[in-house]
Design goal:
Blueprint lengths: L4 H4 L13 H11 L7 E2 L2 E2 H14 L2 H14 L2 H10 L5 H11 L3 H13 L4 H29 L8 H8 L5 H16 L5 H10 L5
Helix pairs in contact: 2-4, 3-4, 7-8
Length: about 210
């Protein structure tokens, strides 16, 4: 009752190698998820490295199946992080926007996992109230997705590299990539919603930064 039907109807529909489905791989993720918590070294999660280079290869998951599990491992704490911000009235629209931009394809699995994870963190007498609060939050996050994010946020880059070079009279290079990244960040933040605003933004961009 706390997950939107649009997300629920996708469960079990993703197909990977042979008999593997998203449900099968989700169960695999739950089984192995703790290794995803191993600390990062040089910006790379060692737990994910172990899974990709050892476990996934032994199980012959294929690249898509392996990446599906890896994505869940890397994002397993995202819902509870936002939940904590929400409880403390610190959650922003930008936080929600980037959650949906990065996780919309795996959000339903993260929602289910977060409930299981939360239930393991608290004693039974606290379980019901905590779970109800989390369900309330998940409902509100989904409502935001359908009522705001899908209607107002532009994910597709409004300007490509060639257009940026022509507008700013710049040659191809690292700076173009930086401008494209910053423009997309502003789009997902909800600050830029059309091509005219995008052009105005890059013209004001300090290319000497």
């Amino acid at each position: 009752d706390f997950i939107n039907r649009e997300f629920l109807k996708t469960l079990g529909k993703k197909k990977f190698l042979t008999e593997f489905t998203d449900i099968t791989l989700f169960k695999l993720f739950v089984f192995f998820h703790c290794i995803g918590k191993i600390k990062k070294e040089n910006g790379y999660t060692e737990g994910v490295k172990i899974f990709k280079e050892s476990i996934a290869n032994r199980l012959i998951l294929g690249s898509k199946g392996s990446q599906f599990v890896v994505n869940l491992m890397e994002k397993q704490s995202e819902v509870l992080k936002l939940f904590d911000l929400w409880k403390n009235e610190k959650l922003t629209d930008k936080d929600k926007n980037f959650f949906w931009y990065e996780n919309k394809d795996i959000a339903v699995y993260l929602f289910i996992f977060s409930l299981a994870e939360l239930s393991s963190l608290y004693e039974k007498k606290y379980f019901k109230s905590k779970i109800e609060k989390l369900k309330e939050f998940i409902k509100s996050l989904q409502e935001y997705y359908f009522n705001v994010y899908k209607k107002e946020i532009v994910e597709t880059p409004l300007l490509n590299g060639k257009e940026i070079m022509e507008i700013l009279n710049l040659s191809a290079g690292k700076k173009i990539g930086e401008i494209k990244s910053k423009l997309l960040e502003y789009q997902i933040s909800g600050l830029i919603k059309n091509k005219e605003e995008a052009i105005k933004f890059i013209r004001s961009f300090n290319i000497e930064k």
